[in-house]
Amino acid sequence: MVSLSNFVRGLPKAELHLHIEGSLEPEQMFAFARRNGVALPFASVEALKAAYDFGNLQDFLDLYYQGADVLRTEADFRDLALAYFRRVAADGARHVELFFDPQTHTDRGIPFAVVADGLLAGMAEAERELGVSSALILCFLRHLDEDAAFATLRQAEPYLDRIIGVGLDSSELGHPPAKFARVFAAARERGLKLVAHAGEEGPPEYVHEALDLLQVDRIDHGNRSLEDPALVARLARKGMTLTVCPLSNLKLCVVGDLADHPLKRMLQLGLKATINSDDPAYFGGYLAENWIRTASAVGLTREDLVTLAKNSFTGSFLPPAEIAQHLAAIDAYVAAQPAIG
Ligand code: ADE
Ligand code: ZN
After folding, report:
1. H/E element holding 146?
2. CA quadruple 8, 22, 80, 191: dihedral positive or negative?
3. What are the structural domains, with CATH classification, of the chain?
4. Sign of the C-alpha dihedral, residues 59, 81, 120, 70?
5. Which of the residues 21, 200, 201, 209 is marked catalytic?
6. Which ligand is nearest to the CA of 202?
7. Alpha-carbon gap, residue 183 to 138, rounded angstroms
8. What is the pLDDT of residues 146-164, one digit of tens each?
9. Which of 57, 200, 248 most suits a substitution to test ligand 1, by most atoms within 8 Å of the C-beta?
């Protein structure tokens, strides 16, 4: 017998929905604030943690953008990334496609290059030190306008050979995908992959828009798709990957209880779901914790876990030969494991 926890931690997997700014741990926030001479509006780590009590996405975003203010130097971004990779490597991650929010930083005077060079340095070090590969996804903040997104894409131009795709995040309600159709078209013309948060708080219509108007390669979250059977059928038919984030959904009140999380239902409906951590420092768990707690809460079988691990690679933007190697590693791992108990 192998415990669920050990089985999950050893299972090769990829993380496809991770905001690197959301991996900023409270202790690290204080350490960066100290080294950069930034005053925080919290007296202690405990006081900060006590504020992690969110009623919805916007409650969280207000704190998340405030926290990101301690990130000032290339070393900060490098250290942040490396700390995340060390944690997720211990969770059995072999590959990560991570989001970053350049506008959160450039709007307060931090050059795009400081952010990108720092993250890329941390990613390169993680690959060398831990054997975890990674790719960057630039997210546009949807509460800002399309001109600002275009300006960000222009700033990213010198880095586009090191950025795999663009995404869309921040406050979903009132900011439908349609608002960003042209900048996504421009990103597509540059050969970038496309993803968008849709159906986290927003209605199924936003998921349709992400498919029709943005022509995304993946949907981030997608929970509310389940309200629309025709959309479920469409997503299943297309084999569209959903990057689902169970502990995020719990913390942001998208679900009231983890036992009610739709992940198992998504698999039963033929949807290509994956498990991810979103903003682990704020939501109470990194990648393996999301897997283990969800598996216990909704009753994921060994077969479900293997499907989820395979989905995380086949839904990634890795080249086919690398995906095949990861799938073979999963098969080899599972064949060597006794029953979970
Ligand atoms: N930015 C960071 N985390 C996010 C989330 N879960 N939804 C939308 N924007 C985000
Ligand atoms: Zn997210």
Report:
1. helix 146-156
2. positive
3. 4-335 (3.20.20.140)
4. positive
5. 200
6. 1
7. 12
8. 999 999 999 999 999 999 9
9. 57
* 127 has catalytic annotation: no
Amino acid at 300: L
Q: How remote is the CA of residue 338 from the centroid of ligand 2, in Å?
A: 34
Give the chain's mean pLDDT: 98
Cα of 281 from ligand 1 centre, angstroms = 13
Q: What tokens were used for 195? A: 């993803």
Per-residue tokens: 109: 């005077």
Identify which of 171, 238, 239, 257 has the alpha carbon closest to the alpha carbon of residue 206: 171
Note the ligand closest to the C-alpha atom of 100: 1
Percent of the chain with pLDDT over 70: 100
For atom 6 of ligand 1, the residue with the nearest CA is: 278
Residue 231 one-letter amino acid = L
Ligand 2 mean position, distance from CA 17 (Å)? 6
Backbone angles phi, psi at 5, to 5 degrees: -60, -45
Task: Kindly write down the DSSP assignment for every residue of 159-205, as one continuous string.
Answer: GGGGEEEEEEES--TT--GGGGHHHHHHHHHTT-EEEEEESSSS-HH
- Distance (Å, rounded) from C-alpha 240 to C-alpha 316? 11
| Cβ contact 166:137 at 8 Å | yes
pLDDT, one tens digit per residue, over 212-251 is 999 999 999 999 999 999 999 999 999 999 999 999 999 9
> Which tens digit of pLDDT belongs to each residue from 275-308?
999 999 999 999 999 999 999 999 999 999 999 9
Place of tokens 């086949």: 314
